[in-house]
Amino acid sequence: MGPTEDDLTAQVVADFHRRPMALDDALEERIWRVLENVRVRWPNIDEDALRASNRKQAMVPQGATVLEPIGTAPGLIVPPPDGENGPSVVVLPGPPRELQPMWTNALETPELQAILGRATEYELRMLRLFGIPESEIAETLRAARADGIDIDALEITTCLRRGEVEVVTRYEPSQADVYAAFEETVRARHAGTLFSDDGSVVDEQVADALRAAGETIATAESCTGGLVAARLTDLPGSSAYVRGGIVAYDNAVKTDVAGVDPALIAAHGAVSEEVAAALAAGAISRLGADVGVGITGIAGPDGGTEEKPVGLVWFAVAHRDGRTVTRDVTIPGGRADIRDRATTVALHLVRRLLLGTGGIPGR
Amino acid sequence: MGPTEDDLTAQVVADFHRRPMALDDALEERIWRVLENVRVRWPNIDEDALRASNRKQAMVPQGATVLEPIGTAPGLIVPPPDGENGPSVVVLPGPPRELQPMWTNALETPELQAILGRATEYELRMLRLFGIPESEIAETLRAARADGIDIDALEITTCLRRGEVEVVTRYEPSQADVYAAFEETVRARHAGTLFSDDGSVVDEQVADALRAAGETIATAESCTGGLVAARLTDLPGSSAYVRGGIVAYDNAVKTDVAGVDPALIAAHGAVSEEVAAALAAGAISRLGADVGVGITGIAGPDGGTEEKPVGLVWFAVAHRDGRTVTRDVTIPGGRADIRDRATTVALHLVRRLLLGTGGIPGR
């Protein structure tokens, strides 16, 4: 959100609670000091423009609690009009790196503490499954009900996110037994695809497994174009177990850099189980890793054939000790969907190789 | 959105316009045929669960226009209660690959055509700039006004998105001269940072420049971990000009795979202009490309020093013919911000090397 929209939000909330906007001099001065950094980086910046922008950010509704800016926009807690009951409105800046820490700060203010003190506390649990359609979870809810579990006492939300089904449940602490029975039903019916019951995502599970084993990983990707390496290195500290990767987009890179035998490509095509396995082996040997990931597929929109349609992706995950998992998946959707989903499948196959269970349905 | 939320939306809109929900038999049958694909992929699926889910999707408010499902959820155009004036509500499924084509279909229905026929048509223009703070644009708006340009006749929105400033302007066709004068003011004041005036993004400009020159590109990335290669290969047809990349996360991969002289790392550190340049050169020589991109930096949260803080990233873009651009940037924010912004800077430096102008502020 630009300053224009931020200003507008504060103004609208101020109007709603009938509180005139006023300049907070101290806040203006504090924001100005934050802007020092901008002035150093852009020495030719128009200082009047910056001052005007600064002043707008420092206009706040009278009687509002100001949350210190993380960037240059303050947060606001705007109480209802004096003498009235009604909701307080919390206004926070939109960029996640400002929003998230400021929300944490907001929770510690006496204003929000007072509101939260009146609220019921809920338990929150999340189960994650990979490789089943959402309708299977809907059926599990019906089965749980048929088994006499009072699932109406739970607030259950299911969400299909990047190919994974998330089952989020909120419940009052008194309903812990009901939740336990529900979770047991999910475990019994979906043992093969349930991969997380503690909020962890597959990325963290792969990272933890590599750290625990003291092993390293490397990739040789074609259709995903670097997305798997990017995702593996997304976590802080990943340099401890990620050696790196090869983006083998052109066939010459597959052979010259990743070490794939050209005869394999000639015999089976670039998108094949054999080439995926050779890419995984190349990732291990060329980058000196313990675990190698090979991916080759057709992300489209062109390049599909009847035998090898757009969306077909071959995966191989290999360990230096000889263990190997290979798998093909035909992923629906457009180019971005196919690349993104393939990245998730790759991580689940790595998880399967390292942990031996869950997250990928059997054949 | 899961089926639960979709159903809820249709129900809420039906209640709002006082239209009871009814099963559309023909729609149910059409969705069932779409689900054939799911049934083939998961032969053990619970067919009753799928039927029940299907039937829910086929419940629609009476009198609503049904838009054919792209996935399994239909769209709806729900008119106001019979005999009343009021807004029609268009309900579309959330996933972008269903939403976008269905919106195109919705626009062609007689219901929406009738509404759109009563609307004013607006012109829409977008300018994109890179390397300036948003406050500079706010000042340009003030300058335009001071020059007598009636910018209140234009609806101007500025947005900072992934480090780029977007200036989006909507105006009635009769105000074309006012817009032309405004755009001229932006061009005059921001010649060095304006890089797009036709809606194109830097990714497309780089792709077009490579195609036009018949040249290829390759990457050797450290801190961005494959994000630059992933972004270059995000566009359909990128296999025509992307050779591939090396994710040189570990220093041994920088030397053994990307061909960086270990003496450079010993003398200058892995995060240095010299190593960035050697990575770019390695991308060209090892992957057989015309243009090489080298990136090395400190994405954090650990690994920063006083001399080389978290956020410091060195870039080099080199051409086989000897032209080279190098640049260091210290990027604020967290690990994800740093990696993402570095990817954008890299693309702008490639653009600068290929096109010679704009998009990166001068030193």
UniProtKB/TrEMBL annotation, chains A, B:
Residues 202-354 form the CinA C-terminal domain. PANTHER family: NICOTINAMIDE-NUCLEOTIDE AMIDOHYDROLASE PNCC (PTHR13939), NMN AMIDOHYDROLASE-LIKE PROTEIN YFAY (PTHR13939:SF0). This is CinA-like protein. Residues 1-107 form the MoaB/Mog domain. InterPro entries: CinA, CinA-like_C, CinA_C, Competence-induced_CinA, MoaB/Mog-like_dom_sf, MoaB/Mog_dom. Belongs to the CinA family. It comes from the Bacteria.
